[in-house]
Amino acid sequence: MNIAGDFGLDLVEVSPTARPPVCKIMDFGRYKYEATKKRQEAKKKQSTFQVKEIKLRPKTDKHDLDTKIGHIKKFLNKKDKVKVTVMFRGREITLSSKGRELLSRIAEETEELSFVEQYPKFEGRTMVMLLSPK
Length: 134
Fold this sequence. Notes:
By secondary structure, this protein is of the alpha+beta class. It has helices at 2-7, 28-45, 62-77, 96-109; strands at 10-15, 22-26, 51-56, 81-87, 114-123, 126-133.
C-alpha cells in the first residue's frame, strides 16, 4: 500500500481467493472509465432485430399480395425477422391449401433476401411462417 501511495495509484485486489491474494497497482478510476468505454463500444457493435408481422387472408388479391411482399422485402433489408400470418375466419378454414400457396409464393419471392426459419404451421385458426434475413 505504501508503494502504491508513493506513485499516487491504488492497490487493487485482483484475485482475493488465491493464496496469497493477488494485488495490482493501478489507477482504479481510469480502469473503471476504460471498462465502461469497452462496454459501450461492445453495445454499439451488437446487432438488434425486431420481429415484424404481416397479416393476410386466404382470399388476398394479387396486387395486395405484391404490396405486402414489398413490405416484407423492406423489413428484411433492415435485418428484421418477418412473421407472415394467414388468418382464417369461419368457413375459410377449408381454404388451408390456398393459405399454404400464399406462404410458399412469399417464400419464393423473398428467397434472395431470406430463408424460412419456421415453415408454415397451424396455430388455431391462423397459419404462421417465420422468415429471417440472410
